Every structure is written in C-alpha cells, then in structure tokens.
Request: fold
Amino acid sequence: MARTPAEGELYDSSEDPLHWRNLWDDAESRAWRRELVTDLYDDLPPSRPDKLAVEAPV
Reply:
C-alpha cells in the first residue's frame, strides 16, 4: 500500500543541482513521486515484534 505524505521535498539534482525548485507538488512529477514513495514503503525493514520500552526523559 503506497501512502503519500501531505508534504515533502523532491528535487531533480541533474536539472536543479542547487535544489531551488521543489517538485513535490508539481503535477508533472506526481508519477515520479508516487514511484519513489511506494519504493520507500516497500523496502522498509519489518517492524519489531516486541516494541521497545519508552524510557523518560528522552
């Protein structure tokens, strides 16, 4: 299942090496963004079966 966060940053480093133009909301880059986010979620490591205890203060 691909989830797309509401905001993010996406740059074409070959066309914009200084990262001036954020393509995250660009309609022409939507398919590229979707592919990258899907790949990210598909390749996440499995979650821990035993959750770590929260210790405060952090």
About this structure: The chain has one helix and no strands.
